[in-house]
Amino acid sequence: MSTFIRRYSRYLNEKAVSYRQVAFDFTKVKRGADGVMRTMNTEKLLKTVPIIQNQMDALLDFNVNSNELTNGVINAAFMLLFKDAIRLFAAYNEGIINLLEKYFDMKKNQCKEGLDIYKKFLTRMTRISEFLKVAEQVGIDRGDIPDLSQAPSSLLDALEQHLASLEGKKIKDSTAASRATTLSNAVSSLASTGLSLTKVDEREKQAALEEEQARLKALKEQRLKELAKKPHTSLTTAASPVSTSAGGVMTAPAIDMFSTPSSSNSTSKLPNDLLDLQQPTFHPSVHAMSAAPQVASTWGGKLPFCVNAV
């Protein structure tokens, strides 16, 4: 079992390396006529497809047979690899379609790289077919396994002859019309393979969505049953001891710990102090006291003069 765990770990490491190199996941990339691999330019395509090949090699190196899948851990790892294999090969297939469409317009060095990539693709298509046979043997539904249509062998001959012509070698006479027909047939075969891969992926997504909805429905029903078992009065009349104690705390008067105790003397003295501030203290001068008898004698009598000393 440890051998297959290490192989699966190697695939995960290679998947992480691929993500660091291209900044996206091949198993989640947009596919179709306007997908990432179909719209990629020649220079970037020649650099990206080998990265997919390395990841595909790491996946296929799991190399398990149906007898070894009786182990639960090995079987779980194989199922995860099976899901990735469908999506990864779909991106790989679209990259090859884009490569073939651009091949006859490439330069000599680019054609040489492209031909080498296509030969490796044919080898990996054989290996992925064997991988899918193992999946069928362990009980995966035949409808969940895509049909892989290989390109005609005449396409490889046409690619090799085109490269030979660019290198100045003698080649068989072939018209542009026959070459275009061969290319069209090959692209059509690979496109049907891509369509089959896409259908399998869509069915898998739909099955996962239905399973998730079924689980959610079961959880809702279980929750409703639990609520039905509880008495209704306990939900409406039961008072929480925390809330009761909280209410008592809220009704109690607040005590200021930093205030100074007040006295009745200070309270009664406050108005007097305010009046004293408004009425300044009066001190009679010496001139006023000496002038008082003169005023009294003027009127013919002695007037009492009182001075309130404060």
TrEMBL record:
Location in the cell: Cytoplasmic vesicle, Clathrin-coated vesicle; Golgi apparatus; Membrane, Clathrin-coated pit
ENTH domain location: 1-26
A single cellular component GO annotation: extrinsic component of presynaptic endocytic zone membrane
PROSITE patterns linked to this entry: ENTH
Keywords: Coated pit, Coiled coil, Cytoplasmic vesicle, Endocytosis, Golgi apparatus, Membrane
Coiled-coil positions: 202-229
GO molecular function terms noted in the UniProt entry: 1-phosphatidylinositol binding; clathrin heavy chain binding; phosphatidylinositol-4,5-bisphosphate binding; SNARE binding
Entry annotated with the keyword Membrane: yes
Single GO biological process annotation from the record: synaptic vesicle budding from presynaptic endocytic zone membrane
Keyword Coiled coil: yes
Pfam families for the chain: ANTH
Matches recorded under Gene3D superfamilies: 1.25.40.90, ANTH domain (1.20.58.150)
Xref: InterPro entries: ANTH_dom, ANTH_dom_sf, AP180-like, ENTH, ENTH_VHS
Similarity-based family: Belongs to the PICALM/SNAP91 family.
Name recorded for this polypeptide: ENTH domain-containing protein
